[in-house]
Design goal:
One of its GO terms (cellular component) is cytosol. It comes from Halobacillus halophilus (strain ATCC 35676 / DSM 2266 / JCM 20832 / KCTC 3685 / LMG 17431 / NBRC 102448 / NCIMB 2269). It is a single chain. With 371 residues, this protein is mostly helical. The protein is 57% helix and 3% strand. Strands 1-2-3 form a three-stranded antiparallel beta sheet. The two termini are 33 Å apart. It binds acetyl coenzyme *A and oxaloacetate ion (OAA).
Length: 371
């Protein structure tokens, strides 16, 4: 028996949700470029969950169902208020809050199809409320309730900042949500599927996935990209700083991908958004640094920029705190996790691979007082 480190190249399941073929990404067969350029995030969630695009009535109903489920229990707000907010990372707060939402959902352990779909809607709707409530409480402000007339993307920014966002901000944020929604069998989605394949509940699956997304090799990279950029003084210092990191065997955050060879199709959209938004908000230096770093890493290491690279300067331009970047990823990706969880339940088998044993063999047991 031999093993493949990191399960590279292993096909672990069938799925009808998203595909990456020849570096082309599709959601339910629709090219990511078409969706990024044309669709609302609500349409994409509907697509991932129902395997079809909604018509106008279906979309309106779905949008209103989402907004009417956005409120979170007071106990969760009180819990967020009880943390030492100077040390708790928002991803840790989100992980705990989603687990708490399960405790407060009377249908948490009801495994019927409809109950699971209803819970999926509630989780998707409540995640932005949790993230924005945490961000506001941390700044000494009270959480803000969503507005019925705003889209999902606009409501996130409204609940975060307490004022109506500009159209350009909503458009950019909506596109970012669309681009992050699903990505085949990435680490957090696989985690969610492994968890619920034991027939554990949907809240456990999403909580586990949040834990996996938090890591710097996955969703946690976007926050680290911004840390790297802000630590570099000027555009001229970008390449020397990267050379130093490579000399120290550090990884360059936002670069490289397990599946994409020539490039991540989402990165070009975020790159363009970064160019426009950094210019508009007086942060062009981060875009200029980013293109230098991208070119250098491509040329010297043959690695492409991934989705986390340019999203960092996009969110920075929108005035969002850097440690909220990964929770935003989760607010989008939960749509994909939920689609995969429902797909797993629909045709389930326990996921239980094998390990190649490489430890010592044939040991003789010594009683404790003889060791
Ligand atoms: C949403 C997402 O999850 S996208 C990914 C977000 N993560 C990051 O941006 C973190 C930085 N990138 C990485 O760590 C990796 O490229 C990953 C985790 C994305 C993919 O990892 P893997 O497919 O396992 O590649 P692995 O880590 O084995 O790297 C292969 C080689 O490329 C090098 N490499 C890969 N990524 C990078 C990088 N970002 N910077 C420098 N070197 C890198 C490795 O050092 C290794 O070199 P070696 O063979 O000389 O030891
Ligand atoms: O697919 C992966 O391994 C990581 C990734 O880009 C994502 O989850 O969006």
């Amino acid at each position: 028996m031999s093993s493949t480190k990191g399960l590279e190249g292993i096909t672990a399941t069938e799925s009808s949700i998203s595909s990456i073929i020849d570096d082309k990404l599709t959601y339910v067969g629709y090219d990511i470029d078409d969706l990024a350029n044309n669709s609302s995030f609500e349409e994409v969630i509907y697509l991932l969950w129902n395997q079809k695009l909604p018509n106008k009535d279906e979309l309106n109903q779905f949008k209103s169902d989402l907004i009417s489920n956005m409120d979170i229990p007071q106990e969760v707000v009180d819990h967020l208020k009880s943390y030492d907010l100077s040390t708790v990372h928002p991803m840790a707060a989100l992980r705990t809050a989603v687990s708490m939402l399960g405790i407060h959902d009377p249908e948490s352990d009801v495994m019927e199809d409809q109950a699971n779909k209803d819970k999926a809607l509630r989780i998707q709707a409540k995640m932005p409320t949790v993230v924005t409530a945490f961000a506001r409480i941390r700044n000494g402000e009270e959480p803000v309730s969503p507005k019925k007339e705003l889209s999902f993307a606009a409501n996130f920014l409204y609940m975060l900042n307490g004022k109506n966002p500009e159209n350009i901000e909503v458009e950019a944020f909506n596109k970012a949500l669309v681009l992050h929604a699903d990505h085949e069998l990435n680490a957090s989605t696989f985690t969610a599927r492994v968890c619920v394949a034991t027939l554990s509940d949907i809240y456990s699956g999403v909580t586990a996935a949040i834990g996996a997304l938090k890591g710097p090799l996955h969703g946690g990279a976007n926050e680290r990209v911004m840390k790297m950029l802000t630590e570099i003084d000027s555009v001229e210092d970008a390449i020397p700083a990267i050379e130093k990191k490579l000399e120290n065997k550090e990884k360059i955050m936002g670069m490289g991908h397990r599946v994409y060879q020539s490039g991540d199709p989402r990165a070009k959209h975020l790159k363009e958004m970064s160019r426009e938004l950094t210019k508009l908000t007086g942060h062009s230096k981060y875009y200029e640094m980013s293109i230098k770093i991208e070119d250098y890493i491509k040329e010297n290491k043959g690695l492409p920029a991934n989705v986390d690279f340019y999203s960092a300067s996009v969110y920075h331009s929108l005035g969002i705190d850097h440690d909220i970047f990964t929770p935003i990823f989760a607010v989008s990706r939960v749509s994909g996790w939920l689609a995969h969880i429902l797909e797993q339940y629909a045709d389930n088998r326990l996921i239980r691979p094998r390990a190649e044993y490489v430890g010592p063999k044939g040991q003789t047991y010594t009683p404790i007082d003889e060791r």
